[in-house]
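Translate sequence into structure tokens.
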Amino acid sequence: MGKITPSILILLMSEVLLILLFPWSLIFEPTLAAGGDTPSHFIAAVAMSRSPLALFSPVTWIHGAFAGYPLFLHYFPLPFALMALISKAVSLLVAFKLVTLLAIIPLPAAVFLCLRRLGYRQNIPAIGALLSLPFLLMTEDSMWGGNIFSTLAGEFAFGISFIVYIIFTGKLYADISGKGKCSPGSSVIEALIALSHGYPLLQSIMGSSYFILWGRNLRSILQLHSAAAGFAAFWLLPLLWRISWNTPASYSWHFKNWAEIAPPVLWPSFAGSLLLGCLCLRDLFGQGRKLSFVFKESIECPELYLLWQLGVALLGFSLAPLLGLIDIRFLPFAQIMLVLLGAVGWGRLLSRLPHPNLWLAGFCAGVVALALSKAAVVDSWIQWNYSGMQSKPLWNSYRLVNDYLSGDENSPRVVFERNNITNQTGSPLAFQLLPYYSGRSTLEGLYMESGLNAPFVFYIQSELTQTPSTPFPLYNYSRPDPGRAAAHMRLFNVSQVIAVSDDIANALDSSPDYELGMVVPPYGIYRLRNCGDSYVEPLKFRPLRMASRNWKERQFDWFRKSSLRVPLVVAFKDTHGDFWKDLQPYDGDPEHIPEVPIEDKEQIQAHAFLGYGKIAIDTSQPGHPLWIKVSYHPDWRITEGAGELYLASPAFMLLVPRTSRVVLTFDAGAGIYLWGKVVFFLTILVFIAKTLFLDRSGWARASGAHRARQSPKRIRMNAGFFVAFALMTAIILGSI
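Result follows.
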């Protein structure tokens, strides 16, 4: 039996400390994890669990927020596919909790493996695993990603991708430095990064540029990324093809002090990085080497590789606002690179001291003590999250509100006041779960980039709260204004408002647009007077035509300043149909839009039924334009009946029906979605062929005589190929 080395012992100790940090009895209770954005993600887990093959065809239409949006078109499906898979053995609620832990517990092992792949031996990988504990337990940020606080706040998808990125970083270096080319396994790992979160993918792509700095390995790196794109094509191609239909949310973080970037708990890692710098300078110039040595040998220098990754992260942080990205998402990569460099520095220093194992033991004790100094605060968050929403002080009130509002996706929508009092239910965003607990749709959801109507939704939010979230810096917001909010909510087919604070409740009480329906302290549920109950409205006035240039900004002005009675139809260059051609052009003045009545002989009856990825519309007057209060998307198709479909204010659909019944279907199985599956399928075939044929010595040189004398081994391998082929065919066909 092999002896357990100090390195393995330190790694095991790091993992055990993390495992003991979590209350496993609470994790295996069937309650919904609380904390920040975390519970709002459960909607995605429920959607993914509807089909065993949902990962390979993940995009689906959700009516429950933002007036409808395509779930998983602009967000990452892999963590939720893992939840769906694990839920075959335990409840989905428990599977949800377990997958969030995948963003935390494997990090020391990932760091250990990365450093081993970078060529470090002795105790350096173990020191890296140990130094990852202070990184995980730092409490200075809860939004950047990578640490426990961020994961508990809902950034578990980032955390999972972050860990896979660390593994990828080491494997890519081992492939290039050892074999001179990238293995297919590296492409698979990069595809897993892409399917889990976008920022680690950007970091991995930019970081791989290290290997082409001197004109070498360009072909290998291009093959790496091309194959990774192929493995993720079933999701990645639709994302890229429809990227213009998302709502970018860039943000520049404002730091209060330097401790946010370099918290004291990470100082040992930073000190180790400085030590490494000093040792490298000494080794570089101590033997009469010139500076040109760095440029000749840097491909095989893991320290420079890690420094390059650090520089790429800082570059990403600097350029993020210009690229419409969130800058702080790049800082965890810089911090973890300093952890890796710090491990190398401390490992080299300790190995040069007398009695290195004794010094190593003391160093480990100090790092563990430093990490555990944060454990009490982190433990309180862990207990809060994993005890579940059902244990929170306001759970009973929250449940009663949901029971009172009970309905389905065809019921009018519900709006809630955003207020931190609701955090006593387990999350300030708890009412984003109205579609799950009450069956009713709301306006505000979690995946705001996916919602074409998101800017309008958050503007309504600002009209009904003292503390708006204002997530889109490029758009304006309002002060509390219940009167104007009433007009906006009628447009969105909202019938009820959940008020929390006394200020908003008093404003609603004094407004003629609202009436109090029920009080469940601290919540008051108000009904909006003169609201409709249908998701389709026959137009009273002729719409105007507007060009597609800057249509989002112009529609936002229309939403803020117009009467909301005359929609603007967006005309793209490839717009089909004839209705839009006869419309009067919009002059850009939302406050003076002409209201030209549409003459009809009789009152028009129209009804819409919202189903899973479908909308069925019945009308008594074909030819009369209908305003459908569901978000537009180019993948809506008319699958029954006939008509013309347009993008209209604010980001709804305008249907000109040619038949009395028209059915719209969100089509995520054809077009670019089908091409994505085809590319994925072809990539798998190439991978299997390369694995089973091209990499087998002698196969490519097989002669006719050899084929005639085919060995049983060859037959078994061919059988394996066809089994894999049949399996992948079943997966692809089942997901289309």
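Note: The chain is about 45% helix and 10% strand.
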